[in-house]
Amino acid sequence: MAYDASDPRAALAPAAATKTVDGPYAPADYAKFYETPPQEDADGIRTWLVRGRNFIIAYSDVTEGAVLARQDQPDEYVLLLPDPGLSATITAGAETKTVEGNSLAFIPPGESRITVNGKGRIVRLFTPRSTDLAARCSNAARYEAPDPRIPPLQDWPTPPDGFRIRDYTLDVPKEPGRFGRIWRCTTFMVNYLEPAPGPRDIRKLSPHHHDDFEQCSLVLNGSYTHHIRWPWTPDQTLWREDEHELCGAPSVTVIPPPSIHTSRAEEAGQMVDIFCPPRRDFSNKPGWVLNAADYPMPGE
């Protein structure tokens, strides 16, 4: 890890060593929704679908009254409402709740329905257990074979009071020593990073790597350059060139292990980091996960 001293992640404990995996590296994946047509376009909803090993991102442009329903949803999923002017009414089982904009909601497994109040954009996060969505992802073919570096997905514990619609405002003041604004559920961890006020100082970047999980970086506003490099191995045929990919909004970048990576805001913008399942190192930091009382960690 190489964090600037001002970065709260500099205080993270070093990760335990993991077993070395031989063989080719998985490539990074870039989905620039502003350059490609949506995978779904009907009933006032335009949805782009892209996936990583353990997650699916469904980014939608929606109109007033649009309905997004799930039948037999196998696990908990996420609804992100980044804009204050758009809200949603969620029904899951016998519960109905209206969630305001500029918020995040976790929606239970089973049957659910989202009715949009307003016009704008929403983001939903699913695991590939939602096989109907996984099959329609623009990069589905890339994930047909397993990656030996990433273990099978395992959910985190169910809340003690069971599944229900849980929503949280994104309007959380910045706090010294806390990294971003982090929430978790049984399937996902979402870090709604502090917005970039402008270009990031090139003297204070944060190159780091993950041994056994992907990072998904969702750009909602502005533009970011993702700098990615892969470690050299004795077998030069497996080496990959460094990448310096400029991604505007909206876009998704899937960063595979064990690549070294850091992202630089090129202008004022908003990025969201997504992990599936939740990260234990972030969860171990007191105060970092804002809804830790609602969702226990494994072993608690």
What does this structure look like?
With 300 residues, the protein is mainly β. The chain has one domain (8-283): Jelly Rolls (Sandwich). It has helices at residues 131-136, 280-283; strands at residues 29-32, 40-42, 45-51, 56-62, 67-73, 77-81, 87-92, 95-99, 103-107, 110-117, 120-126, 166-169, 182-184, 189-192, 215-221, 224-229, 243-247, 251-255, 260-265, 270-275. The strands form four sheets. It has a seven-stranded antiparallel sheet with strand order 2-3-4-11-6-9-12. Strands 1-18-15-20-14-13 form a six-stranded antiparallel sheet, with no helix packed on it. A hairpin with a 4-residue loop joins strand 13 and strand 14 (189-192). The longest helix has 6 residues, at 131-136. The chain is globular and about 55 Å long. The two termini are 28 Å apart.
Helix-strand pattern: EEEEEEEEEEEHEEEEEEEEEH
Strand adjacency order, main sheet: 2-3-4-11-6-9-12
Q: What is the third-level CATH name, the topology? A: Jelly Rolls
Oligomer: single chain
Strand content: 35-45%
Overall pLDDT: 95
**Quick one: biggest sheet?**
7 strands, antiparallel
| Uncertain spans | none
